[in-house]
Design brief:
Blueprint (H helix, E strand, L loop, with lengths): L5 H28 L17 H7 L2 H34 L3 H12 L6 H15 L5 H25 L4 H8 L4 H29 L3 H6 L7 H11 L4 H29 L1
Protein name: ABC transporter permease
InterPro entries: MetI-like, MetI-like_sf
Organism: Leucobacter edaphi
Length: 265
């Protein structure tokens, strides 16, 4: 292990603090902006008011978009977790490691392919299938982006799983299905929860693909926020961003508490 002098420690801590502030500051600034009493996004606020939260929650367009994002996020989390579990199990049981590696690359491709490329491809296919502007279309499109995260999280869960537990269960007469639900599944739940969390946040925050497949009757909160930015600088936008921040933070904390209890149990 390298020895670090006190001066070096101070420099490293200073660098870490600067980087942390650089990353967190844009997020934190949104919160006071949402309480400004002005009709524009001016920082720092000169006065305080809840008028923009009232504007957000009293406007059916904003609340409808929030509900759409939440519902789509939940459906995507469920679908991506199930598909990710099936994919991880398939990769785990493949004897041909080269084939498993190739399939893994294919499953993780949406993480590295430019979003605009995916958006155009999905739009072209969905337009032909009549899925543009539909709830099913949004769920399927967002699942394409979310699936790699669930595959990675669940595969990591399997990596920490002792396969001898399955062998012991089956040697005692349990069927493969019973072994899966009573032995395997409880041990990989933390990975599944992590994957579902990433899937939800990925869907809830998605803009690029949503812009291509939205309709006047169905749009998500990020899409409405993007449209609002192009029209004006109404601080309702900051209120919407704060709502997203609070919601995602609460979900992350809840998931961490849940997985922590599971791991301790």
């Amino acid at each position: 292990m390298l020895k670090v002098t006190p001066v070096t420690k101070v420099l490293l801590w200073t660098a870490a603090i600067i980087v942390a502030i650089w990353l967190v500051a844009p997020t934190i600034v949104v919160i006071p902006l949402s309480f400004t009493d002005k009709a524009s996004l001016v920082f720092p606020p000169t006065g305080w008011s809840f008028r923009w939260y009232e504007s957000f929650f009293s406007n059916p367009q904003w609340t409808g978009a929030l509900w759409n994002s939440f519902l789509i996020g939940l459906l995507v989390a469920a679908l991506a977790t199930v598909l990710g579990l099936l994919a991880a199990m398939g990769l785990r049981n493949l004897v041909n490691k080269k084939l498993a590696g190739a399939l893994t690359v294919g499953l993780l491709a949406p993480m590295v392919v430019p979003g605009i490329v995916l958006a155009i491809g999905i739009y072209a296919v969905f337009l032909k299938l009549g899925l543009v502007g539909t709830l099913v279309g949004f769920v399927f499109a967002h699942t394409v982006l979310a699936l790699p995260f669930t595959v990675v999280a669940i595969t990591a869960g399997f990596a920490n799983f002792d396969e001898r537990l399955e062998l012991a269960s089956q040697s005692l007469g349990a069927s493969p299905v019973r072994t899966f639900f009573r032995v395997t599944l409880p041990n990989i739940i933390p990975g599944m929860v992590s994957g579902a969390l990433f899937a939800f946040v990925t869907s809830f925050d998605e803009v690029m693909i949503s812009l291509f497949i939205k309709s006047p009757y169905l749009q998500t909160l990020p899409v409405l926020m993007y449209a609002s930015v192009t029209r004006d600088t109404d601080p309702t936008l900051a209120a919407a961003a704060t709502v997203i921040l609070i919601l995602t933070t609460a979900i992350v904390i809840g998931a961490l508490v849940f997985t922590g209890r599971k791991q301790r149990g």
